[in-house]
């Protein structure tokens, strides 16, 4: 399940990058489990509103927690040790740094650093 989650996470990141290239901006912030405005066709094959393979909901963070844009999972049912293993597979193995890190209630894969415009 962790490998599926990692693959889905990377697919989601690439979809949001594709949206940004096509629209010269990222979509606005959305709540966990909700498709961000303008993303229905982009996320149609992703099952964005379904529970992720590690539990919890997909989430789009824009301009929150000091990050400009990030794909997130809110409320996964994995321990911090299991999430560190996921981090090690895709980043630096440290949930407080790098492109994959913890956030209140979940974890993010940073798409773009910095603050909202």
Structure description:
The protein has 117 residues and is an alpha+beta fold. Helices cover 28% and strands 24% of the residues. It has 2 helices and 4 strands. A hairpin with a 2-residue loop joins strand 1 (57-64) and strand 2. The model has no long low-confidence stretch (mean pLDDT 95).
Quaternary structure type: single chain
Topology as a string of helices (H) and strands (E) = HEEHEE
Mean pLDDT: 95
Characterize the largest beta sheet: strand count, sense, and whether it forms a barrel: 4 strands, antiparallel
Total strands: the figure is 4
Task: Tell me the strand order in the biggest sheet.
Answer: 1-2-4-3
Separation of the first and last Cα atoms: 35 Å
Overall, the morphology is: globular
Q: Show unreliable segments.
A: none
Beta-sheet strand percentage? Answer: 15-25%
What is the count of DSSP helices, taking H or I runs of 4+ residues? 2
Structural class: alpha+beta
Radius of gyration (Å): 13 Å
Helix content: 25-40%
């Amino acid at each position: 399940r962790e490998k599926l989650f990692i693959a889905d996470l990377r697919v989601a990141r690439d979809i949001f990058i594709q949206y940004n290239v096509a629209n010269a901006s990222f979509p606005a912030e959305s709540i966990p489990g909700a498709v961000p405005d303008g993303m229905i066709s982009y996320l149609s094959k992703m099952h964005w509103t379904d529970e992720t393979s590690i539990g919890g909901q997909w989430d789009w963070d824009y301009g929150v927690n000091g990050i400009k844009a990030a794909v997130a999972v809110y409320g996964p049912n994995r321990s911090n040790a299991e999430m560190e293993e996921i981090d090690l597979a895709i980043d630096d193995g440290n949930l407080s740094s790098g492109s994959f890190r913890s956030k209140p209630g979940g974890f993010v894969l940073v798409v773009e650093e910095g603050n909202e415009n």
